[in-house]
Design brief:
It is built from five helices and five strands, in the order βαβαβαβαβα. By secondary structure, the chain is α/β, with parallel strands linked by helices. It has one domain: 3-Layer(aba) Sandwich (Rossmann fold).
Length: 150
């Protein structure tokens, strides 16, 4: 069985650290790749820039995506991956502090698989991350070959 990969797209160091700590404390196995904005995340997925030597046939099982990001925000990132055959089927969970109804609607309109508000309490946040990771890495059946030819 190949290693499970989580792509965490998060620019806030505290939220990044909390997510990584929650995954570790809950014994969620797998590699976590952190990108700090949408551009870096696209570079990772498409094997560009300092990810040029990455095997792009191996994609993450889940992307945890914040919305409020520098350079390219989460909705723009989502629009890009949904428009590319290599990445359009990747599961994306919006994990954000935004409570704006417009953000929720836009996230689903752009193809998000789920929208979760980050709990403020660490214990609650840890449980949320545990449940998300367990579902998407262990229970969910994803296509084995994400790239679909037209």
């Amino acid at each position: 069985m190949k290693e499970k990969i989580i792509l965490l797209v998060e620019d806030e160091p505290d939220d990044e650290a909390l997510t990584l700590r929650a995954l570790k404390q809950n014994n969620i196995k797998g590699k976590v790749v952190v990108a700090h904005d949408g551009v870096e995340a696209l570079n990772y997925l498409w094997g560009r820039s300092h990810y040029a030597d990455r095997d792009t046939s191996i994609m993450p099982q889940i992307i945890f995506l914040d919305l409020k990001l520098p350079r390219m925000n989460g909705l723009e990132f989502l629009r890009h991956i949904r428009s590319d055959k290599r990445t359009r089927l990747l599961p994306v969970v919006i994990l954000t502090s935004s409570k704006e109804e417009e953000d929720i609607l836009n996230a689903y309109a752009q193809g998000a698989n789920s929208y979760i508000r980050k709990p403020v309490d660490f214990k609650e946040f840890g449980e949320t991350v545990r449940q998300l990771a367990s579902y998407w890495l262990l229970l969910n059946e994803a296509p084995t070959n994400v790239i679909r030819e037209e």
